[in-house]
Amino acid sequence: MLLLLRVILYSIAIPTLTIAICISLSTSNKTISIPQWQLTNSDIQRAKNILHANQHSTDQIVSLSLSERDLNIACAYLLNLYADSQSLIKLSTDYLSFQLRFTLPDNLFGRYIDLQFQLYIPPYQAPAIKNLQIGQMTIADAYAGLFIDKAIQHTRLNQYLSLFLQNLKEIHLNPGQLQIKYQLPAQASTKIENLLTPNIDQRALNQYQKTLDKALLKHDATWRLSLSDVLQPLFQLAQQRSTATNAIEENQLVIFIANRYVNNYSDSKNKKRKAIPYYVPSLYKRTDMAQHFMWSAALSASGSSHLAHLVGVEKELNDAKRGSGFSFIDLAADRAGVKLGEYATANPEQALKIQQKMANITNYQAFMPEIRDLPENLSAQAFYAQYESIYSAKYQSVLQEIDQRISACAIYQ
Known about the structure:
- By secondary structure, the chain is α+β, with helices and mostly antiparallel strands.
- It contains 15 helices and eleven strands.
- The longest helix has 25 residues, at 2-26.
- The N and C termini lie far apart (55 Å).
- The relative contact order is 0.08.
- The model is unreliable at 1-22 (pLDDT under 50).
């Protein structure tokens, strides 16, 4: 009997210990110098053009010639749709070298998981993954491809890659360029759009849309439409529909519907929508604040908080150069939206808690602090004269003040 007990204990302990060792070796808290790509608006558009290159060429062969920078832009954009990550791709004579870092949720082992590998693209041969290293672990070349396949098998990113690889016609390296040719069927464009956006439950989506429509029909047209008037009824419905199992998904639907309305993405060709009045939502009597808030919340709720921060800062820097000027007010609205998106989808407990609080708010100050005293309309010259850069201590102190105000809002207490 004692022998049997030992066998059972060993059979449980050895695999558990092995897994723990593997996780410990593959994760890290060490700071490494992978560049975080500061994607400009033009970079993001370039990434979209690469990832959606077949959008106007379905059933036709698409030919792409990608530089090292193109590859890094597309990779950074795509990965940040799914996770907080850093990436670096280097283009050599017959292979692409990848260095990736993913930020993990809080755990006992390490904050990051690092992957390094090379994608060999020899002439007239199928590409192969070699020299795969995960943290401190090295994977034999014979198993490297299989390991990568298994690692992303259950992600929507894998569906995107599978669709692309199934229709790949040609891939080869020229000096400084990766040449790709592929031909996707007509229905592939819709599939790719779906893969690069959050999963949507259409029936639930319709229910949320009807709830918002009812609220709009009851709204007094002589009053401004507050963003709280959009979000409150949606979160009330989410609270009714949710359990710990689906609360995160329901909150994603709330934010998706609210963002679609606030940023006026409704389908104008839908005859049913023409009967629903459209009011421009606002925060502190400013429509731009509501738009910034909801766009960032939607991106954050889909798992792209890092990308939301990048785009928000880049937009303000561009406005400083040729536009309305750098606005810490807009930036604060972006950060408040990111906070809501993160908090509403962080875990089931917080998702349920935010539903209860948002369902009972009386005004938008519950989630959007007073920020109208912050500097705005700063030209590029004025911004750099006062703050030097977005990495300076003075600039970071303003962000810290903004974040403190946001964290003090009622829904986060």
